[in-house]
Amino acid sequence: MPTIVVDVMPKAELLDPQGKAVTGAFARLGVDAFSGVRIGKRFELTVEGEVSDEVLAEASRVAAEVLSNSVIEDVVGIEVVE
Amino acid sequence: MPTIVVDVMPKAELLDPQGKAVTGAFARLGVDAFSGVRIGKRFELTVEGEVSDEVLAEASRVAAEVLSNSVIEDVVGIEVVE
């Protein structure tokens, strides 16, 4: 079955406390390859049948209105897989 | 600066209560294009400089050992962007 993946990240200008916590954990663990971590969400929407233009438009709409909070988050990707 | 994106999803055989809640919200809102929703995490790791094989190997290691809980989650993707 096709799946639409929607990626949502905290806005770049906002602090991301979860990401900061992981960055701190990396420092304590001696992991120095990464200078920063930001943590967002990945939604997998299962589609029965075909991914038509209407279904994609509906995915864009729910990504903006239901799956993300536009005050603090950006939808960074909408992609069909499989 | 290059970024390594790590995608982590709840294992397929586990219930995903957050995803179920969104599926229920879709039903109440009259959104019928999607038969299911699963919610995972998207990590963006910032790399200073070049993404060498060592850095990618380190990303795989922290994805498995730090960013995910292998009892309940799968790392479904590790990808370099930019």
Automatic annotation (TrEMBL), chains A, B:
Its EC number is 6.3.5.3. It is found in: Cytoplasm. Keywords: ATP-binding, Cytoplasm, Ligase, Nucleotide-binding, Purine biosynthesis. GO terms for biological process: 'de novo' IMP biosynthetic process. The keyword Ligase applies. Pathway: Purine metabolism; IMP biosynthesis via de novo pathway; 5-amino-1-(5-phospho-D-ribosyl)imidazole from N(2)-formyl-N(1)-(5-phospho-D-ribosyl)glycinamide: step 1/2. GO terms for molecular function: ATP binding; phosphoribosylformylglycinamidine synthase activity. Its main location: cytoplasm. It catalyses: N(2)-formyl-N(1)-(5-phospho-beta-D-ribosyl)glycinamide + L-glutamine + ATP + H2O = 2-formamido-N(1)-(5-O-phospho-beta-D-ribosyl)acetamidine + L-glutamate + ADP + phosphate + H(+). GO terms for cellular component: cytoplasm. InterPro entries: PurS, PurS-like_sf. Part of the phosphoribosylformylglycinamidine synthase complex involved in the purines biosynthetic pathway. Catalyzes the ATP-dependent conversion of formylglycinamide ribonucleotide (FGAR) and glutamine to yield formylglycinamidine ribonucleotide (FGAM) and glutamate. The FGAM synthase complex is composed of three subunits. PurQ produces an ammonia molecule by converting glutamine to glutamate. PurL transfers the ammonia molecule to FGAR to form FGAM in an ATP-dependent manner. NCBIfam families: phosphoribosylformylglycinamidine synthase subunit PurS. Part of the FGAM synthase complex composed of 1 PurL, 1 PurQ and 2 PurS subunits. Belongs to the PurS family. This is Phosphoribosylformylglycinamidine synthase subunit PurS. It comes from Microbacterium ginsengisoli.
